[in-house]
Automatic annotation (TrEMBL):
<dbReference type="GO" id="GO:0045211">
    <property type="term" value="C:postsynaptic membrane"/>
</dbReference>
<dbReference type="GO" id="GO:0042734">
    <property type="term" value="C:presynaptic membrane"/>
</dbReference>
<keyword id="KW-0966">Cell projection</keyword>
<dbReference type="Pfam" id="PF23110">
    <property type="entry name" value="H1_KCTD8_12_16"/>
</dbReference>
<dbReference type="GO" id="GO:0043235">
    <property type="term" value="C:receptor complex"/>
</dbReference>
<feature type="region of interest" description="Disordered">
    <location>
        <begin position="1"/>
        <end position="24"/>
    </location>
</feature>
<dbReference type="GO" id="GO:0008277">
    <property type="term" value="P:regulation of G protein-coupled receptor signaling pathway"/>
</dbReference>
<keyword id="KW-0472">Membrane</keyword>
<feature type="compositionally biased region" description="Low complexity">
    <location>
        <begin position="167"/>
        <end position="194"/>
    </location>
</feature>
<protein>
    <recommendedName>
        <fullName>BTB domain-containing protein</fullName>
    </recommendedName>
</protein>
<keyword id="KW-1003">Cell membrane</keyword>
<feature type="compositionally biased region" description="Gly residues">
    <location>
        <begin position="11"/>
        <end position="24"/>
    </location>
</feature>
<keyword id="KW-0628">Postsynaptic cell membrane</keyword>
<dbReference type="GO" id="GO:0051260">
    <property type="term" value="P:protein homooligomerization"/>
</dbReference>
<keyword id="KW-0597">Phosphoprotein</keyword>
<dbReference type="InterPro" id="IPR049905">
    <property type="entry name" value="H1_KCTD12"/>
</dbReference>
<dbReference type="InterPro" id="IPR000210">
    <property type="entry name" value="BTB/POZ_dom"/>
</dbReference>
Length: 324
């Protein structure tokens, strides 16, 4: 039997007060376990029931106080399933624990987190996130970036690597932005929006490495019978700012969501699995292939119990692209 909410020391008493009236959750309190397991978009969370019902009239409050366990969807292991962004849910859960909003210093997903707060019907959290977006970029505009890649709240909205205009000379008109008027910490010039995807001068230089693992089967007739399997995942390694500039919304940042723009990462991967699509995006952004390498290993052969006359090979390939 679950412990009384008043004994848990959680926000708002950890749940629904008995004085809330008929149907306010008394039945759900005895039906749900004290510790609940949630599968949110493939990410597993384990928490107290009192935490998920800490905000009255929210979606989770209604699910775990107004419904019975058998009425909620579950995954194959019996965990309660929510088809939402599993990585952003950790901030939702943090808020439910103490009703405080604490985000990393470089947090690029504020608008998406606000959408999750609205879905879970947490109006106070959504309001705080909306206020934070307004302070960072003036209303709903994106926040500007300093030359060191940090977020700046008092500059006009800018795309990644926005060039600053040079100050006007005495007695003259303001000059147009120059490719050399602002430079990155590494000494390379920063980008204007018009220079980010074309061949103009003054673009940020750097390297991006594309990698993938694959497997294929070769039969007795060698290449004539080669059966290639689909690429499972394309990984992206390099500076965060460059990767986001090139791949935009097709970049999956879930494995490294809080990486600052000027830091490097090897944990990004693409939401599609066509190498040519990745190459097209790199080419449009002005990158060229500088090197590539590949390894192959026979992972499964007939003498190891595999299919007769077939050999299953695994490979790992990397392509290095650069932009001067």
């Amino acid at each position: 039997m679950a412990l009384a909410d008043s004994a848990r020391g959680l926000p708002n008493g950890g749940g629904v007060s008995p004085a809330a009236g008929p149907g306010s959750g008394a039945a759900g309190s005895s039906a749900f376990p004290e510790i609940v397991e949630l599968n949110v978009g493939g990410q597993v969370y384990v928490t107290r029931r009192g935490t998920v019902v800490s905000v009255r009239d929210s979606l989770l409050w209604r699910m775990f106080s107004q419904q019975q366990p058998g009425e909620l969807p579950r995954d194959s292991k019996g965990r309660f399933f929510l088809d939402r962004d599993g990585f952003l849910f950790r901030y939702i859960l943090d808020y439910l624990r103490d009703l405080q909003l604490v985000l990393p210093e470089h947090f690029p997903e504020r608008s998406r987190l606000q959408r999750e707060a609205e879905y879970f019907q947490l109006p106070e959290l959504a309001r705080r996130l909306a206020q934070g977006r307004g302070a960072a970029g003036g209303g709903t505009r994106p926040a500007a970036l300093n030359r060191d890649g940090s977020l700046c709240a008092d500059e006009p909205p800018a795309l990644l690597g926005y060039l600053e205009a040079e100050p006007p000379e005495a007695g003259g008109a303001a000059s147009a932005p120059s490719p050399t008027s602002s430079r990155s910490p590494s000494g390379g010039p920063l980008l204007t929006p018009s220079q980010s995807l074309d061949g103009g001068a003054g673009r940020r230089s750097g390297y991006i490495t594309i990698g993938y693992r694959g497997s294929y089967t070769i039969g007795r007739e060698a290449q004539a019978d080669a059966k290639f399997r689909r690429v499972a995942r394309i990984t992206v390694c390099g500076k965060t700012a460059l990767a986001k500039e090139v791949f935009g919304e097709t970049l999956n940042e879930s494995r490294d969501p809080d990486r600052p723009p000027e830091r490097y990462t090897a944990r990004y991967y693409l939401k599609f699995n066509f190498l040519e699509q990745a190459f097209d995006r790199l080419s449009e952004a002005g990158f060229r292939m500088a090197a590539c390498s590949s390894t192959g290993t026979c992972a499964f052969a007939p003498e190891q119990g595999g299919p007769a006359d077939d050999k299953i090979w695994t490979s790992y390939t990397e392509y290095v692209f650069c932009r001067d």
